[in-house]
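User: Here's a protein and a ligand (adenosine-5'-triphosphate). What would the complex look like?
Assistant: Let me lay out the input and then the predicted complex.
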Amino acid sequence: MSFLTLSLALVFVLIPLILTKTLNLGLGKDTIIATIRSIIQLLAVGYILTFVFESENLIYIFLMVVLMITAATHNARKKGASIQGITWKLVLTFIIIEIVTQGILIGFKITPAEAQYIIPISGMLIGNSMVLSILFLNRFTAEIEARKEETELILSLGGTPKQAIHHSLITSIKASMIPTIESQKTIGLVQLPGMMSGQIIAGADPVQAVQFQLLILFLLLTTAAVTSIILGFLSYPTLFNSRMQLVKWPDKNNDPA
Amino acid sequence: MNTEYAIELENVSYSDGPLKIIKNVSGSFRKGKITSLVGPSGAGKTTLFRLCNGLISPTHGTISIYSKNIQEYEPTKLRRNVGLALQNATMLQGTVYKNLQLPRSLAGETLTEDEAADLLTKVSLDKDLLKRNVGDLSGGQRQKVSIARTLVNQPEILLLDEITSSLDRVSTNDIENLIEKINKENGVTIIWITHNLNQATQIGDDTWVMMNGELIESGPSSLLKNPENEKVKQFAKGDFI
Ligand SMILES: Nc1ncnc2c1ncn2[C@@H]1O[C@H](COP(=O)(O)OP(=O)(O)OP(=O)(O)O)[C@@H](O)[C@H]1O
Ligand SMILES: [Mg+2]
């Protein structure tokens, strides 16, 4: 595909722009910003990736992963603003996800230790982990508010913080994992996963594309479970003090966005 | 542990941000006695109980349980020994049995069905309620289950927050008798909050009157009948027939 044909594809941006104008949806500005941002960001990534792949230097792979983790943390932290030290908790979660998944992939020689594999897979997994974190933090903060009385009841009867928060924690971990599991049930029936579609369009053997996609799906399941559980167990202790009392929250758990 | 007082408060204050909820309260609760805690809504009675159970800590001052600073107790042990029946009788979703088991399961133990049935009998509830869902209980039944649940830990000090507020005359009598029985038979120190001044005078050995975060008056229960303090006079007026 040439840049000329790609610019013709901008027609698909015009359609929503005209629709939002005629229906007065007021989304014109956002649509334009989103379009421009995606053009700049993706093109930049494209050139950076070409450079990284060609240089074959591990330090660039490392820097790319650091960049991904930074961006993912920045996005997710707003949802957990009421949880103390949420930034480093997210960073730690993403690092663990990256080490565990790449460790298994490369350790068992499932994928080669090359930038071409490490970077896109890391991107998908950290991105997924970010979405999971946001889902988890949203639900967890809501559960804690809603179950405050139950939590205090358990504490008042001599329960530990872990016992008092157990129900909220499990509910939030489960709830954040459901979309991942549900979407995997219907996958291939309704929509072909993006990566697989991409490979097929680029001329890869469909069966091989499927194999790769399955690998990614399994990785996504692991990511989902590991993300919520790590984040949950890192987060709950900050809700209590050393006297096993529920710490009062600053009223900033609603994200400004 | 042969001190005279179960709980002593020394210049205890509690603030929530700029809001002063408990203001410089000093006083004590006699060991093995029943103390009635009265005062208008918002006086800080529930907050005082939360302080004594260790759910919150004083911003200033010290609370001592059996002459030992409350901060020196291991929180879970403290809360088992200073049992609290919450004002709103919060329940876990599920059966009455599950709720009665809660204090035990938190300690990694189990409460047999027989033990649970005995507890229900103790608070004048039918054993058949054991398998009932707490959502189907009446307000009064919930309060009784809540008391029974607090008793599971066999606390030496018992804090009861308006446990008779939604009970009828007969049930209130049952609970009043239960309070006196637990106190006499097991020597449990009981502090209970009530809005009924007749009840406070009859059941309590001692009375505390709180208003607006302050301890206005304390002493033998008869004080409510002939209060010296003007504010207490106003508060008690019309409550005695
Ligand atoms: N967690 C809290 N956060 C902020 N304010 C609180 C909190 N708990 C209690 N208060 C305030 O503290 C004051 C005392 O409340 P408390 O519940 O102790 O009163 P009370 O004497 O038990 O009243 P009632 O008879 O209505 O139960 C009230 O003004 C209440 O609004
Ligand atoms: Mg109260």
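Summary: The pocket of adenosine-5'-triphosphate (ligand 1) is lined by residues B 16, 19, 21, 39, 41-47, 87 (CB under 6 Å).
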